[in-house]
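Could you help me review a protein record that somebody else here produced? This is what I was given.
***
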Amino acid sequence: MPARMAQAPPSYSFVAFPPHTKDGLVIVGKNSARPRDEVEEVVYFAAATHDPGCKVECTYIEIDQVSRTNAIALSRPSWLWGAEMGANEHGVFIANEAIVTKEPASETEALLGMDLVRLGLERGATAKEALDVIVSLLEKHGQGGNYYEDGNSCHAFQSAYLIVDRNESWILETVGKYWAAEKITEGVKCICNQISLTTKIDAEHPELRSYAESQGWWTTDTEFNFAQVFSQCDNHSDCCLGKDSLEKQEGSITVQTMIDVLRDKSGGICVDSEYFLTTASMISVLPQNHSSPCIHYFTGTPDPSRSIFKPFIFVDDVKLVPKIQSPCFGSNDPAKKVPRFQEKPDRRHELYKAHEWTRSVMENEEDKGEKLRATMLDLERQGLEAMESILTSSEILDPSEVVDLFYDCVDTEIKFFK
């Protein structure tokens, strides 16, 4: 893998609050930029109780399990335990961004930033609870290890997080075990693969400033600016081009608005480069009215401009969707054996394989590709309209009506591709 892969992939995560959004909705969007050939899957895990003293095996290390874990839905690179992004039954959304800082990321295997996304969702019922979970585990176990399925080189990064619930959002940025966080309750915010926090810090590691001072990166006679202190480069510009287009639509941001932003290739938000690709995308709609359900949209396939955003709602007994899950190799998985990644198995799931055909048609047969895209967008629009009717209805949602929702959407998409 080329040395240039060592750069942090240019992912983008957005959150928009009322009154920028319509109908009192908090809307979150994330593009997961990863190595071009990586497969991302969508998985669901039901809420569970666990025996005292039991352990949970994360991507690289084992840690203590808690007595109860929340139901979660994740979009994740299929070789690892954690996730790039996901949500839980309580309406908490978390996305991860790889960042590079003055402090080199550890190659020693510990918790990956993506493991901490899953752990925050499993253990936190609010955005602030999830933040507290992440920073406590960071303190105890540290972060480190290879972010990519690459046996030739270790690509290690620090991590930033967008953590959102129906009421508030937290931007959490980490440097080793040290961290700072900003609380957001209004407007539009974006994070990407650069440090974004500056002087507005609402919570931080108790030794953050003394550590920065001990490294010679900050002196107490100057204002503490997190980006200036810890960024590797001098340019701390806002990397989120899509933020401007969202802010211009004040009062009218919808799910479709967020989809359009995530599909923006000309602005660089939808990544399609020599080494990196937007391998999956996710949008969460979190109504501030707690009587309305949260709705989460997953693509499960690369390039949102050629993918369908499919809705998922947490209800009891939600049906699992094997067609969007990668093959399981168990203890024979090259990601689990040490030395790791000596082979690269075929991790493509059924939807991914079907989607490959569509991408090929769109790239090589213009007329047929345009017709395919129009049909895809029509399927997506039908789903969006159905979810809109759920959110605007005065009636309580009947769980039986949506228990098969995501399963049916994936099934319909595959049949369409065939």
User: Anything to note?
Assistant: The radius of gyration is 20 Å.
